[in-house]
Design brief:
It contains 6 helices and 2 strands, in the order H-H-H-H-E-E-H-H. By secondary structure, the protein is mainly α.
Length: 155
């Protein structure tokens, strides 16, 4: 039986809350990098960097995770290569395939981004409390399993 949610139940808005939190961190990160003298980074570029940090390095895999076309990811990568953030190198396991790797400049930017995350987590701890932040972090880190699939609705 499907449970219905009351509009004032916070779980009813969890996706929007997650998205708002994501925007809070991403905008803070971009502002921090700008304050350190880095060039302006777009959200797609930021998302490519996040995927690289998570170990996703094949352009086609990054495009799939971001829900964009291969042409769009290549345009984003081209702009990042021009900014000396990333480079395309041969995949050590398959020389016919290219992977995205950070340049030394990109690595320094990643280090600044890590510092930004530390600063933002400290501020978020001050704003919402250590206990609330720890509970959220533990819950979000749980294995949620594979994404749900649903049968086609034949209307």
């Amino acid at each position: 039986m499907t449970q219905t949610f009351s509009p004032d139940d916070p779980t009813h808005q969890i996706l929007l809350s997650l998205l708002r939190g994501f925007y809070w961190f991403d905008e803070g990160l971009l502002n921090f990098l700008k304050s350190k003298g880095w060039p302006t980074i777009t959200r797609p570029q930021s998302m490519v960097m996040a995927n690289i940090a998570m170990g996703v390095k094949h352009p086609s895999d990054i495009a799939r995770k971001l829900g964009i076309s291969r042409q769009a990811i290549h345009a984003t990568l081209k702009s990042m290569i021009a900014m000396d953030m990333v480079q395309l190198v041969s995949d050590p396991t398959n020389k016919r395939v290219k992977i995205v790797d950070l340049t030394p400049t990109g690595e320094r930017m990643r280090e600044d981004a890590q510092h930004a995350m530390t600063v933002m987590v400290e501020e978020l701890t001050n704003r919402i409390g250590k206990s609330n932040l720890q509970k959220a972090a533990v819950a979000l880190d749980l294995d949620w399993g594979t994404p749900m699939s649903f049968p086609m609705d034949k209307r």
